[in-house]
Specification:
Layout (H helix, E strand, L loop, with lengths): L2 H18 L6 E6 L2 E7 L2 H4 L6 H13 L8 E6 L3 H10 L3 E6 L24 E4 L3 H16 L4
Parallel strand pairs: 3-4, 4-5
Antiparallel strand pairs: 1-2, 1-3
Helix pairs in contact: 1-5
């Protein structure tokens, strides 16, 4: 297992925490100098906040930890392609690179629907790579929704 897979596995652990909390299982970690400095998972239902996505919560934790809004040189690992809101926050926080697992065809803000991270009109262009442990990241979300669609006996 390479280092990027190791960090994505940590994001998957966060996604499993979300699943246990009956949240959509999306997890995220932020890495600085080879160490995880922030971890988060989706908490929209728990917090009753539209903005409580894993990426936003992880960015907030990282900013508090380093006492700055600039996350220059840091990398984010997230199990699902960030939405437009999260991609905007990623660009605004100046994260160096985003690694994501599953692609989000309906509302992905990185490549699937929008190209926010590569938009040259923003204050910062963030590098990205999708498909890291894609099957595992996709399966946890598919299983979550499949279980909720089953008729109750």
């Amino acid at each position: 297992m390479n280092i990027n897979e190791k960090f994505m596995k940590s994001a998957l652990k966060e996604a499993k925490k979300a699943e246990k909390a009956e949240e959509v299982p999306i997890g995220c970690v932020i890495v600085c100098d080879g160490k995880i400095i922030a971890r988060a998972y989706n908490m929209r239902q728990t917090k009753r906040l539209a903005t409580a996505h894993a990426e936003i919560l992880a960015i907030e934790k990282a900013c508090r930890k380093i006492k700055d809004w600039r996350l220059d040189g840091m990398e984010m690992y997230v199990t699902l392609e960030p939405c437009a809101m999260c991609a905007g926050a990623i660009a605004n926080s100046r994260i160096k690179k985003v690694w994501f697992g599953a692609y989000e065809q309906k509302g992905g803000g990185v490549v699937s629907k929008f190209n926010i991270l590569s938009e040259s009109g923003l204050n910062h262009v963030t590098d990205f790579e999708g498909g890291l442990l894609e099957a595992e990241c996709s399966d946890i979300i598919k299983e979550f929704f499949r279980a909720r669609r089953k008729p109750k006996e």
